[in-house]
Amino acid sequence: MPERTNRRDNIVDAAAHLFVQNGYDATSVRQIADVVGVTEAALYYHFKDGKRELLEAVISCQIPDLLHVVEECEGAETLQDFIVQFGQRMVALNPNRLEKLRWMVMEFPRMTGDERAMFHRKHLAFQNRIAVAVERFLGDATAAKTMAATITCMVFGYGFLFLCLDLQSVSDVKSDNIIQLLAQGLAAATR
Amino acid sequence: MPERTNRRDNIVDAAAHLFVQNGYDATSVRQIADVVGVTEAALYYHFKDGKRELLEAVISCQIPDLLHVVEECEGAETLQDFIVQFGQRMVALNPNRLEKLRWMVMEFPRMTGDERAMFHRKHLAFQNRIAVAVERFLGDATAAKTMAATITCMVFGYGFLFLCLDLQSVSDVKSDNIIQLLAQGLAAATR
DNA sequence: GTCTATAGGGTGATAGAC
DNA sequence: GTCTATCACCCTATAGAC
Predict the structure, then answer these.
(1) N or C: less crowded end of chain A, CB within 10 Å?
(2) Is pTM beyond 0.90 here?
(3) Other CB atoms closer than 10 Å to residue A172's CB: what's the count?
């Protein structure tokens, strides 16, 4: 394995881990080099533009891909069932998916236009996939888009508040109850 | 530690602004001192424990207070009306309220248990106030709590995705449509 | 490609004069 | 309370040997 792995990729992986864990500013190039097991100088050979180029590389490979979560729910037979399945799968996601998204929020102000556009493209693809999935229950494309946006706001809002900010440790409201209420409501709103 | 001098408050204000704007790590003590118009040494006289104590002071005065938003909606005559009013007021909030919350998410991992508890207390007060406000439409305290949690997830999710991550600039879904859909749905779910 | 060595500057923090 | 002067350390980045 050591022979076949690309050093550049190793560096990006290490940087990604440290950036997400401690933040870009709190992570030094030295720290990254230590984790990879090379010197700083070697690192600057691979990334001529230094730390910022490293950030760029990390951003483009750290945008979480969640399309598969939508796919897994496409067998649902009712809108209510779809929302429940989707919500439960999203909440059950590997916690480091959320860590990555938290980090995106954190670094967003320092991203370039291109980097932001990359994130937007990926997120819109996700949201559109949801819209397509729910359109068969609604029949109307515009309504489906609004529905998809509503569902994503809900799910990410829960993630940020209850998981990132650890509200779950002090609130007795359970995610299942929120999901049930939302699913029932949104289904009822379309009848 | 006698009373709070005026200077001390000036320092906290300057630090708060810089921390929220650029992040804790990217802000130097020197920078803060420059903005206030004193030297670093003077700053260390007021905050014996240095930069970390400064962060502590900033955290405790930066947790956004949103209770008044709930109060302003308490005249609503139906649940649907309440949600619409509340959602619109939240979206219309001064953008720097959201900046502060974004910053809380950013710095959360480095907060102490006490600092997190302070945030949790304040947020739960907010959420409970919503629960009390909607209880008259539901009659059931548990259902009101779930409803309050759902509404906050929705509103903060919109804030993070569409405002912090600027999804509004690339999505054609408008906040009003999301709010309307949610309000209609949640009202319908209780009938 | 990777190393050693080092430049050049910023950082948090302190001592002691006023 | 505020200053000047200074510390020891860490940072990003580069030059040149191997």
Answers:
(1) N
(2) yes
(3) 10
Compute chain B's Rg from CA coordinates: 20
Average pLDDT over residues A13-17: 98
Please tell me the predicted confidence (pLDDT) of residue B4.
54
Helices (H) and strands (E) in chain B, counts: 10, 0
Which of B90, B120, B161, B174 to substitute to test the interface with A, most A CBs within 10 Å? B161
Interface check for B188 against chain A (CB to CB < 8 A): the answer is yes
Q: What is the DSSP letter of A58?
A: H
Contact partners, residue A130, CB within 8 Å, separation at least 6: A70, A86, A147, A148, A151, A152
What band does A184 get if pLDDT is binned at 50, 70 and 90?
Answer: very high
Q: Is B44 on the interface with A (CB under 8 A)?
A: no
Is residue B102 within a helix (H) or strand (E), and if so which, with residue range? Answer: helix B95-107
DSSP state of B153: H
- Amino acid (one-letter) located at B132: V
- pLDDT-based confidence at A3, cuts 50/70/90? very low
The position carrying tokens 């951003």 is A59
Residue in A116, A167, A189 closest to B181 by CB:
A189
| Mean of pLDDT over chain A | 95
User: For A129-148, what is the mean pLDDT?
Assistant: 97
Strand C nucleotides within 7 Å of a protein CB: 1-5, 10-16
Q: What residues of A are in contact with residue B171 (Cβ under 8 Å)?
A: 124, 127, 149
Smallest CA-to-CA distance from B148 within B131, B169, B164 is with B131
Give first-to-last CA distance, chain A, whole Å.
56
Among B151, B160, B174, B176, pick the best mutation site for testing chain A contact (most A Cβ within 10 A): B160
Domains and CATH numbers, chain A: 1-48 (1.10.10.60), 55-189 (1.10.357.10)
Those residues of chain B that have pLDDT short of 50 are: 1-3
Average pLDDT over residues A38-61: 97
